[in-house]
Batch of 2 targets.
Target 1
Amino acid sequence: MYRRILYDDSDDDEDIIAMQRRPRVFYERVNYCELYDDHDFINRFRISKATFSTVLRLIENEISPPSQRNRAILAPCKLYMMLRYFATGSFLLAISDFVGVSESSACRYIHQTCRAIAKQKQKFMSFPMNDVDTKRVVTGFYSRSRFPRVIGAIDCTHIKIQSPGGDNGEIFRNRKGFFSINVQCICNPWLKITNIVARWPGSCHDQTIFDNSLIKHKFETGLIKGYLLGDGGYEVNPYLMTPLLSPRTQSEQLYNESHIRTRNVIERCFGVLKRRFPVLSKGITVNLSNIQAIIVACAVMHNICIDMHDDIPNDLCEDNYDGNVREENFFDLPGNTRGRQERDRVIRDHFANLQ
């Protein structure tokens, strides 16, 4: 029960003290699926019980302990920890007390579960792969404000983090003055994320992230056909339509109005994502090497919730979707000649006929 601790207090002698070892404490681990009804479960974990069971089946083999000896932490408990962390953005000590494990275990298994879910990205996050799915997406966008051939809306959002420190810490400080990861997302008309890039520091411009992304290469080579809608922070391209800075004709005004209304889905997507999982808006305070998995796991969980038709928690039913203050990009980057010509053609052949 006691251990002897030696320490050198002076150059002449050593003192020996006895210190009582802290006893091991085993906390109760609650099955929250049995404790709460679906309404209370959603309020605490931000997903329904059905979605919880679906996610658990996907990752159970990867996060389950090799045995159940010595009060091993089972897969449901690990998933509870991760979801509670996403739902609160709280300190790991509070998460560990909620689930009944040590703080070090909470840290270790939250990151393990995040990585397991992030690996499911290809299954739940992709562009339409055939003509039927593509037509459905294009029709969904067109029904919003009659913008033709739209396959996705693109934008970036800043996810607040703590200062990484070191020689390169300042490159994570964005133009608003806080440290962040600048995350690029593309979404469809139903707010599902179809592509995500979550590795660039906050000081990087949206256009830089897009220029270095695989998705741009796929549009350049014709693997994906259709238009992306972006704000004025992007250069206009034959496959990326941006708003006009100073529309002069009625058809140009119709183009801008349709563009803004159609592209609004990406703003709503960011808002619902951050409000469903507040850790993304309150700030992530873990090591930089673990942040990307947390962001991607939240995006995957967001898509699964949409697929499962989860009810949106009551605090999400507001018009102001995005929790972070945004500065709209009203400037118009020049782009290339082919991009401007394609934009002019869309205005002339489509929007001029809608007057």
Target 2
Amino acid sequence: MSSRRPSSALDIVRQFADQTTAHGAKYTVTSENGRVWQTVWLATILTTCGYMSYQLVCLSFNYFQYPFQTVNRMTPMASLKFPAITICDLNHIDSTKIREYSAEVTEILSFISLIDEGSPSIEDSFVYCSWQGEGEDCQKLLSYAYTHSGRCFRLNQTVVDTKRSDNYGSRSGFFAVLKVNAEGYTVSDKHSLGFKLFIHHHYDYVDVNLKHILLSPGFSYDVSFQQYTLKYLPSPYNSLGRDCLAGSVGDLDPGHPAGYSFSQCVVERSKSITAAICGCNITDCTVKEFLDCYNPNFDVAYMNTSREGCLVPCSSHSYVPIISHAIFPAPHFAWTLKPTFWQSGDLNDSFTQAVVAVNLHFEDLILREVEHVPLFNMHSVMGIVGGNMGLFLGASLLTCVELLQLTYTLIKYGLLKLMASRRQPHVCQCQPVQKATVNPTGVQAKA
């Protein structure tokens, strides 16, 4: 701004227009080009200011809609943590183990005791196990995992002792040969014979009714999988379709022995609701109480009421399988396998039709991340605002400082003028008193 003392507010504006870095403003106050061009420049600047204001209003509206975009990343890794593998026999109870039980026993025997005594064991179900091509004892490699449908088998039960894969391919993971006991068939999912396979994170509770892979006897399955990390945005973005807990699975509740996960939260709430209805929980309900009360009420609670109050973590892991299969064992190759998998006395047609092989491994050692990120941040907003100012006014952030200075100068000028008017002494604007005079003729005249 000029150091010359302004005589009016209009003079201040003219000085600003003549000196500002915004292009074209000085032509609105320069009289050299004539009134016509002054009017043209003024109309042009007002039009661009109006359109820029419209763009900024649209930006504000879009910003508070909290939009987001999806970013995909692929990061090569030296090794990856192997997921939890849960395998469940479709036959929940082996009838050959409970033949001596009478109907009256179900009224006093707890359901969990029935599961422990009647479910297939690791020794019953697994013929052979190996990790990364090296044979291992199945009972040491695997542990039991209890689900709503019974007892299952799990590799990588806890996150502490989790196995890692430093390679990929068919000999870089877990291989097992399993067998089913058709004679002990009692109650089975889908009225089928075989196994259910689940690939999941260590903290997740296995919902036996959701996504799984069926393993049928007489076949060998090769299951390779890719690891994905999914990252969502919490409120106010709600990119998952609802609010989520900021953090990763297992990191949100370190005091919980199994870590936190959405599925585990739902199960715990379902158990509490069902126990309040039936007067017992899954560990002490009798078989009769479980079948008549606990099981149907748990299903209702799990599907409806229990999901209230359980938030999904904003970061979770997923494994996408790629499945292929072939007949197993090959008819002319079965005898060569007997030293490795079973004794010669066990090798017969009925036995080979009851076995299933499964090979689980990473497709590659690439961590795939699918992340939701805000569409607008401080840098993008400044870029949009600066771009509009530069495009329509030829202005910059320095021009904003000039506008602040102009505002300060106008306010200061107005206050000084107001204070000066109050300090000026009051001058009376009264009319002089008229006096009457008398002339010798006796006629009155005004002085």
